[in-house]
Protein backbone atom coordinates (compact mmCIF):
# COMPACT_ATOMS: atom_id res chain seq x y z
CA UNK A 1 0.00 0.00 0.00
CA UNK A 2 1.41 3.40 -0.97
CA UNK A 3 1.56 6.41 1.31
CA UNK A 4 -1.19 8.05 -0.74
CA UNK A 5 -3.44 4.99 -0.39
CA UNK A 6 -3.25 5.15 3.41
CA UNK A 7 -3.32 8.94 3.80
CA UNK A 8 -5.84 9.65 1.05
CA UNK A 9 -5.83 11.68 -2.15
CA UNK A 10 -6.31 15.45 -2.49
CA UNK A 11 -9.71 16.53 -3.81
CA UNK A 12 -11.67 19.76 -4.12
CA UNK A 13 -15.07 20.41 -2.55
CA UNK A 14 -17.23 23.32 -3.69
CA UNK A 15 -20.54 24.75 -2.58
CA UNK A 16 -23.55 24.46 -4.89
CA UNK A 17 -23.10 28.00 -6.28
CA UNK A 18 -19.36 27.32 -6.80
CA UNK A 19 -18.48 30.43 -4.79
CA UNK A 20 -16.90 28.61 -1.81
CA UNK A 21 -14.07 26.28 -2.80
CA UNK A 22 -11.93 24.19 -0.45
CA UNK A 23 -9.34 21.42 -0.67
CA UNK A 24 -9.40 18.23 1.41
CA UNK A 25 -7.38 15.03 1.61
CA UNK A 26 -9.59 11.97 2.04
CA UNK A 27 -9.01 8.22 1.94
CA UNK A 28 -12.70 7.26 1.72
CA UNK A 29 -16.05 8.73 0.77
CA UNK A 30 -17.21 9.25 4.37
CA UNK A 31 -14.01 11.14 5.16
CA UNK A 32 -14.56 13.37 2.13
CA UNK A 33 -18.11 13.99 3.33
CA UNK A 34 -17.21 14.95 6.91
CA UNK A 35 -14.10 16.96 6.07
CA UNK A 36 -15.79 18.69 3.14
CA UNK A 37 -18.84 19.63 5.21
CA UNK A 38 -16.62 21.10 7.93
CA UNK A 39 -14.60 23.10 5.39
CA UNK A 40 -17.74 24.51 3.77
CA UNK A 41 -19.39 25.26 7.10
CA UNK A 42 -22.15 22.64 6.90
CA UNK A 43 -23.31 20.97 10.12
CA UNK A 44 -25.22 18.12 8.45
CA UNK A 45 -22.60 16.08 6.52
CA UNK A 46 -24.74 12.97 6.08
CA UNK A 47 -27.67 14.97 4.70
CA UNK A 48 -25.49 16.29 1.89
CA UNK A 49 -25.45 14.89 -1.63
CA UNK A 50 -22.01 14.60 -3.24
CA UNK A 51 -21.91 15.01 -7.02
CA UNK A 52 -19.27 15.50 -9.70
CA UNK A 53 -18.98 19.20 -10.43
CA UNK A 54 -18.59 18.66 -14.15
CA UNK A 55 -21.84 16.80 -14.87
CA UNK A 56 -23.79 16.34 -11.62
CA UNK A 57 -23.33 12.56 -11.34
CA UNK A 58 -24.05 11.54 -7.74
CA UNK A 59 -21.14 9.79 -6.03
CA UNK A 60 -22.34 7.25 -3.47
CA UNK A 61 -20.24 4.19 -4.31
CA UNK A 62 -16.99 3.74 -2.38
CA UNK A 63 -15.31 1.79 -5.18
CA UNK A 64 -16.11 4.57 -7.65
CA UNK A 65 -14.64 7.16 -5.27
CA UNK A 66 -11.43 5.14 -4.90
CA UNK A 67 -10.92 5.29 -8.68
CA UNK A 68 -11.47 9.06 -8.87
CA UNK A 69 -8.46 11.04 -10.04
CA UNK A 70 -6.49 13.36 -7.76
CA UNK A 71 -7.99 16.87 -7.53
CA UNK A 72 -11.43 15.75 -8.71
CA UNK A 73 -13.95 18.53 -8.00
CA UNK A 74 -17.06 17.56 -6.02
CA UNK A 75 -20.09 19.71 -5.24
CA UNK A 76 -21.69 19.21 -1.83
CA UNK A 77 -25.41 19.90 -2.12
CA UNK A 78 -27.84 20.70 0.67
CA UNK A 79 -31.19 18.81 0.56
CA UNK A 80 -32.90 21.82 -1.05
CA UNK A 81 -30.18 22.38 -3.67
CA UNK A 82 -29.75 20.86 -7.12
CA UNK A 83 -26.81 20.67 -9.49
CA UNK A 84 -26.63 23.15 -12.35
CA UNK A 85 -23.97 23.04 -15.06
CA UNK A 86 -21.10 25.54 -15.10
CA UNK A 87 -22.11 28.74 -16.86
CA UNK A 88 -25.77 28.78 -15.84
CA UNK A 89 -24.99 31.67 -13.50
CA UNK A 90 -23.78 33.63 -16.54
CA UNK A 91 -26.96 32.75 -18.40
CA UNK A 92 -29.06 34.00 -15.51
CA UNK A 93 -27.10 37.24 -15.39
CA UNK A 94 -27.71 37.74 -19.11
CA UNK A 95 -31.37 36.87 -18.70
CA UNK A 96 -31.80 39.77 -16.25
CA UNK A 97 -31.12 42.12 -19.17
CA UNK A 98 -33.96 40.72 -21.32
CA UNK A 99 -37.50 42.04 -21.18
CA UNK A 100 -38.78 38.64 -19.98
CA UNK A 101 -41.72 38.58 -22.42
CA UNK A 102 -41.24 35.30 -24.30
CA UNK A 103 -44.90 34.55 -25.03
CA UNK A 104 -46.46 31.11 -24.97
CA UNK A 105 -43.95 28.29 -25.43
CA UNK A 106 -44.50 24.64 -26.30
CA UNK A 107 -43.47 22.14 -23.64
CA UNK A 108 -39.72 21.58 -23.65
CA UNK A 109 -38.83 18.00 -24.53
CA UNK A 110 -36.07 16.00 -26.19
CA UNK A 111 -37.79 16.19 -29.59
CA UNK A 112 -37.67 19.98 -29.74
CA UNK A 113 -35.09 20.79 -32.43
CA UNK A 114 -36.08 24.37 -33.22
CA UNK A 115 -33.18 26.58 -32.07
CA UNK A 116 -35.44 29.63 -31.69
CA UNK A 117 -37.78 27.75 -29.34
CA UNK A 118 -34.78 26.50 -27.38
CA UNK A 119 -33.48 30.05 -27.03
CA UNK A 120 -36.86 31.25 -25.80
CA UNK A 121 -36.94 28.45 -23.22
CA UNK A 122 -33.58 29.66 -21.93
CA UNK A 123 -34.86 33.23 -21.78
CA UNK A 124 -37.76 31.98 -19.70
CA UNK A 125 -35.55 29.94 -17.34
CA UNK A 126 -31.81 29.59 -17.88
CA UNK A 127 -31.70 26.37 -15.84
CA UNK A 128 -33.59 24.65 -18.68
CA UNK A 129 -30.19 24.10 -20.25
CA UNK A 130 -29.73 21.21 -17.78
CA UNK A 131 -32.40 19.26 -19.67
CA UNK A 132 -30.98 19.88 -23.14
CA UNK A 133 -29.72 16.88 -25.08
CA UNK A 134 -26.35 16.98 -26.82
CA UNK A 135 -28.14 17.60 -30.12
CA UNK A 136 -30.04 20.55 -28.63
CA UNK A 137 -26.87 22.03 -27.13
CA UNK A 138 -25.18 21.74 -30.52
CA UNK A 139 -28.10 23.44 -32.28
CA UNK A 140 -28.08 26.42 -29.91
CA UNK A 141 -24.28 26.75 -29.98
CA UNK A 142 -24.41 27.08 -33.79
CA UNK A 143 -27.24 29.63 -34.06
CA UNK A 144 -26.05 32.49 -36.32
CA UNK A 145 -26.51 35.61 -34.24
CA UNK A 146 -26.86 37.69 -37.41
CA UNK A 147 -29.99 35.74 -38.38
CA UNK A 148 -31.89 36.76 -35.23
CA UNK A 149 -34.25 39.70 -34.95
CA UNK A 150 -32.88 42.03 -32.24
CA UNK A 151 -36.48 43.04 -31.48
CA UNK A 152 -37.19 39.45 -30.38
CA UNK A 153 -33.89 38.48 -28.72
CA UNK A 154 -31.28 40.19 -26.62
CA UNK A 155 -28.24 39.51 -28.82
CA UNK A 156 -25.82 39.84 -25.92
CA UNK A 157 -27.76 37.15 -24.07
CA UNK A 158 -27.80 34.95 -27.20
CA UNK A 159 -24.02 35.23 -27.52
CA UNK A 160 -23.60 34.13 -23.90
CA UNK A 161 -26.01 31.24 -24.48
CA UNK A 162 -24.14 30.08 -27.58
CA UNK A 163 -20.77 30.08 -25.82
CA UNK A 164 -22.16 28.33 -22.75
CA UNK A 165 -23.96 25.62 -24.72
CA UNK A 166 -20.83 24.95 -26.77
CA UNK A 167 -18.74 24.60 -23.61
CA UNK A 168 -21.34 22.38 -21.93
CA UNK A 169 -21.44 20.14 -24.99
CA UNK A 170 -17.67 19.59 -24.89
CA UNK A 171 -17.63 19.08 -21.12
CA UNK A 172 -20.55 16.63 -21.22
CA UNK A 173 -18.83 14.50 -23.85
CA UNK A 174 -15.51 14.57 -21.99
CA UNK A 175 -17.25 13.70 -18.72
CA UNK A 176 -19.00 10.73 -20.31
CA UNK A 177 -15.69 9.45 -21.66
CA UNK A 178 -14.12 9.79 -18.20
CA UNK A 179 -17.06 8.01 -16.54
CA UNK A 180 -16.86 5.16 -19.06
CA UNK A 181 -13.14 4.79 -18.35
CA UNK A 182 -13.67 4.71 -14.57
CA UNK A 183 -16.37 2.06 -14.98
CA UNK A 184 -14.02 -0.08 -17.08
CA UNK A 185 -11.26 0.26 -14.47
CA UNK A 186 -13.67 -0.59 -11.64
CA UNK A 187 -14.97 -3.65 -13.50
CA UNK A 188 -11.42 -4.82 -14.28
CA UNK A 189 -10.46 -4.40 -10.62
CA UNK A 190 -13.44 -6.47 -9.49
CA UNK A 191 -12.69 -9.22 -12.01
CA UNK A 192 -9.02 -9.33 -10.99
CA UNK A 193 -10.03 -9.54 -7.33
CA UNK A 194 -12.42 -12.45 -7.95
CA UNK A 195 -9.79 -14.33 -10.00
CA UNK A 196 -7.32 -14.27 -7.11
CA UNK A 197 -9.70 -15.70 -4.48
CA UNK A 198 -8.43 -19.02 -2.93
CA UNK A 199 -11.51 -20.96 -4.03
CA UNK A 200 -10.88 -20.21 -7.70
CA UNK A 201 -7.56 -22.11 -7.97
CA UNK A 202 -6.93 -25.83 -7.43
CA UNK A 203 -3.81 -26.85 -5.57
CA UNK A 204 -1.25 -29.32 -6.92
CA UNK A 205 -2.28 -31.82 -4.24
CA UNK A 206 -5.91 -31.66 -5.40
CA UNK A 207 -4.90 -32.25 -9.01
CA UNK A 208 -2.58 -35.13 -7.94
CA UNK A 209 -5.42 -36.63 -5.91
CA UNK A 210 -7.69 -36.61 -8.95
CA UNK A 211 -5.03 -38.44 -11.01
CA UNK A 212 -4.54 -41.07 -8.29
CA UNK A 213 -8.29 -41.55 -8.06
CA UNK A 214 -8.50 -42.21 -11.79
CA UNK A 215 -5.77 -44.90 -11.52
CA UNK A 216 -7.62 -46.58 -8.63
CA UNK A 217 -10.80 -46.72 -10.72
CA UNK A 218 -8.85 -48.33 -13.58
CA UNK A 219 -7.48 -51.04 -11.29
CA UNK A 220 -10.91 -51.82 -9.82
CA UNK A 221 -12.59 -52.01 -13.24
CA UNK A 222 -9.82 -54.15 -14.70
CA UNK A 223 -8.82 -51.57 -17.28
CA UNK A 224 -5.08 -51.29 -17.88
CA UNK A 225 -3.52 -48.32 -16.21
CA UNK A 226 -1.93 -45.85 -18.61
CA UNK A 227 1.80 -45.77 -18.14
CA UNK A 228 3.62 -42.50 -18.51
CA UNK A 229 5.70 -42.18 -21.64
CA UNK A 230 9.43 -42.31 -21.16
CA UNK A 231 11.78 -40.17 -23.13
TrEMBL record:
Where in the sequence does UniProt note compositional bias of the Polar residues kind? 188-197
Annotated SUPFAM superfamilies: CAD & PB1 domains
Native source organism of the sequence: Ixodes ricinus (Common tick)
- What Gene3D superfamilies does the database record attribute to this sequence? 3.10.20.10
Write down what this protein is called.
Answer: Putative cell death activator cide-b protein
Superkingdom of the organism of origin: Eukaryota
What are the start and end residues of every segment in region (Disordered)? 188-231
| Upper lineage | Eukaryota, Metazoa, Ecdysozoa, Arthropoda, Chelicerata
- What's any GO biological process attached to this entry? regulation of apoptotic process
InterPro entries referenced in this protein's UniProt entry, alphabetically: CIDE-N_dom (IPR003508)
Q: Where is the CIDE-N domain?
A: 7-85
Compositionally skewed regions (Basic and acidic residues) per UniProt: 212-221
Q: What keywords is this UniProt entry annotated with?
A: Apoptosis
- Cytoplasm in keyword set: no
Q: Name one Pfam family in it.
A: CIDE-N
Amino acid sequence: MTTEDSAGKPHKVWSCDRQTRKCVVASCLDELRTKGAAKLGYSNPFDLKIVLEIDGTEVEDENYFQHAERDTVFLMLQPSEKWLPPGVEALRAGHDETDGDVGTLPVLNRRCLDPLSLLRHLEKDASNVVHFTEEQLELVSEVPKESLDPRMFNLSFVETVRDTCGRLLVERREAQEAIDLIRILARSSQEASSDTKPGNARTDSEQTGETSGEHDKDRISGRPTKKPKTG
